[in-house]
Write a structure and sequence with these properties.
The chain has 24 helices and two strands. It is 56% helix and 2% strand. The radius of gyration is 26 Å and the shape is flat. About 5% of the residues have low confidence. It is mainly α. Helix 8 packs parallel to helix 10 and helix 13 packs across helix 15.
């Protein structure tokens, strides 16, 4: 039997350029529907599937669509998320003939689904109703409103409103809170991170009593980022019971138990494998207590002796810097232990400055690759130049070790710096970076046309 993808590909080719012929696609849909146990698609009179609805958005241009197919075919396929995000920003959709490959990719890779609900258009959602493997698309945003949309549409609406008017977004959520599903409540709470302020505390404090652990955890994470919150004060009291500083020594006594009040404030009682209970509770208390409670600057604290629980305290400082988005602590802990997550507590420009210095002072290894992978894109000239210099140096001694660094450079350097890369050095790895930057520049030009 001809595969579903073959049938849909044949049926969809050219549907933007000639009158719609539904017979082949309907036959495919009926066959798929017959094999779907317990679920039948909507049927038009006569027993055939209802026709695909008319699209309400224009498709991207021919050259942009052709580039999409090349990416889906394996040419620089790691650029697919960038193409999708840029295409979605134009308000257009993909042409129908790209849908089978694109929806199949979304089935395997959840990370690209964010924009597919809009880009696939009405025909994409129509197809998804007939193919179980593509049904995930029905849960992605389509542009509908808070009142009429599905869960994904409502998340998108709340995210946009939160960005424009944080108070209005919170009040909207408060008005429907009791009717939301547990899964939706957890995701909605997490969206309040954008524009977080003390005005959100009463709502988040109430969410700490939710029956769903994920909701309580999300609320506790946000309250931890409000140094003046009641939760922050409770965690400060717990920290004071665990830590005493005398001279150059930090004396630590880990909690003996995790009570219900600690659980309510986001401390998880069961440790991950390989970590003891008391160490786990200590790490969470330190990470959730306001970093200002330590009084001394982090650079000074890092030089002090911790006779007991030393590893756990330092790990907790890293967790706290990330969780609380504390720039001072993030800088200090990155110098102590260059973990890429710490960069997210810093503005993009400072991320790139730190990363550039890190690249200049370190040999090419997995740690360098991980740090670069955590830097916000696009990379500006300072970081781009540092990485290009590193590529030239390594190309002279270990050219076989450059693959991932070359790909990262080509994928994250600002495409506007393509001429800089091309003229930087004639060595082959640099020219590969320049070629990938040209590919991305052309990609964005086509989508803007």
């Amino acid at each position: 039997m001809t595969s579903w993808n073959d049938l849909t590909s044949a049926a969809l080719v050219g549907t933007d350029r000639r009158p719609y012929r539904g017979d082949l696609l309907q036959d495919a849909a009926v066959e798929v529907a017959r094999r779907r146990a317990g679920r039948r698609p909507d049927m038009a009179p006569g027993g055939a599937p209802a026709p695909a609805p008319v699209e309400d958005r224009p498709a991207v241009g021919r050259r942009a669509a052709e580039r999409l197919m090349r990416i889906l075919g394996g040419q620089h396929d790691r650029l697919l998320p960038e193409w999708l995000a840029a295409a979605a920003a134009t308000g257009r959709r993909v042409p129908p003939y790209t849908l089978p490959d694109l929806l199949d990719r979304g089935r395997r890779d959840r990370s690209i689904r964010e924009h597919l609900g809009v880009l696939a258009g009405r025909r994409g959602r129509w197809l998804a109703a007939y193919n179980p493997a593509w049904s995930y698309l029905l849960d992605e945003p389509t542009g509908e409103t808070w009142e009429l949309g599905g869960a994904a549409d409502r998340r998108a609406h709340l995210r946009a409103l939160r960005s424009a008017d944080p108070g209005a977004a919170r009040r909207l959520l408060e008005g429907t809170w009791e009717r939301e599903t547990p899964d939706d409540r957890a995701e909605f709470v997490a969206l309040l991170a954008d524009g977080l302020s003390p005005d959100d505390e009463p709502f988040l404090e109430q969410a700490l009593d939710d029956r769903r652990r994920e909701v309580r955890q999300a609320a506790a994470n946000l309250l931890t980022r409000l140094p003046g919150s009641r939760l922050a004060r409770r965690m400060a009291e717990r920290l004071a019971a665990c830590v005493t500083i005398t001279g150059d020594v930090i004396a630590v006594e880990a909690p003996e138990a995790c009570d219900r009040a600690m659980e309510r404030d986001g401390i998880r009682p069961k440790p991950p494998r390989g970590t003891g209970e008391r160490a786990w509770w200590l790490q969470q208390v330190i990470a959730r207590a306001p970093m200002s409670e330590w009084e001394l600057p982090p650079d000074r604290l890092l030089t002090m002796r911790i006779p007991d629980w030393d590893v756990d305290v330092r790990a907790a400082w890293v967790r706290g810097a990330v969780l609380q988005r504390d720039p001072e602590w993030a800088r200090a802990m990155f110098a102590f232990d260059p973990i890429s997550d710490l960069l997210q507590a810093l503005p993009p420009g400072e991320q790139q400055e730190l990363a550039a210095r890190f690249v200049q002072g370190r040999d090419l290894d997995s740690q360098l690759i991980m740090v670069l992978g955590g830097v916000s894109s696009p990379w500006g000239e300072e970081l781009a130049t540092a990485v290009l210099h590193k590529i030239v140096r390594v190309a002279a001694t270990q050219p076989w070790n450059l693959g991932e660094l070359v790909r990262l450079a080509g994928e994250h350097i600002d495409p506007a710096l393509g001429l800089l890369a091309m003229s930087y050095s004639p060595v082959e790895p640099i020219q590969q970076v320049a070629a990938l930057l040209r590919f991305r520049a052309d990609m964005h030009k086509e989508l803007a046309a």
